[in-house]
Design a protein that fits this description.
two-component regulatory system, alpha/beta, elongated, phosphoprotein, about 220 residues, about 25% strand, Rossmann fold, transcription cis-regulatory region binding, Arc Repressor Mutant, subunit A, 4-stranded antiparallel sheet, 5-stranded parallel sheet
Length: about 220
Amino acid sequence: MKILIIEDEKEMVKSMSQFLRQESYVCEIAYSAHDALEKILLFDYDCILLDINLPDGNGLKILEKLKESRKADGVIIITANNSLEDRIQGLNLGADDYLAKPFYLPELSARVSAIIRRKQFGGSNKILFREISVDLHGKIVMVNDDVIELTRKEYDLLVFLLANKNRVVSKNAIAEHLSGDNAELLDKFDFLYSHIKNLKRKLADAGCEDYLKTVYGLGYKFSV
């Protein structure tokens, strides 16, 4: 799952990104409204952590741009500003939640997880697809009630494909989801092919049908 942190306090960004990466999230950073706007127009995120008070503008303008662009990214407003008016305005502009500084990092992670579940999986902690079961809270994958061991990238890949089941997703979209900003530096998709190959093998070894199809010239599709 891919997170965008829009925050100018670098020590806070460091602690947030370190904690969330330990929770298996891919984190990208924007220290200004200008950088944030560039990123949200180019990429999709599972959740955006947005500080309202930025050095070059009000974070609420970013919410307005998201709304204008009809983007479905989840948004949590993170601010030291306790103004009720700002919180109401942010929620009216499409934010899903807000969190006042200072906050505990486990609470931040729990709120991020809740928004992703609500937006992508109907609020459930579990994804069920035929013989596949994924426990989002415990990050446990089962096939026919047997646990299979996946790497972090394989797990992220499977959840991303299940979130987009029955839709074709491009290699670029998958690479960006798995690697964040680093995907822009990759000239080849060898790392992606390796993760897909390993995931397909582990699912097959567990007795799972082959639901991951290559759509030549376009990308991949996870479907019956």
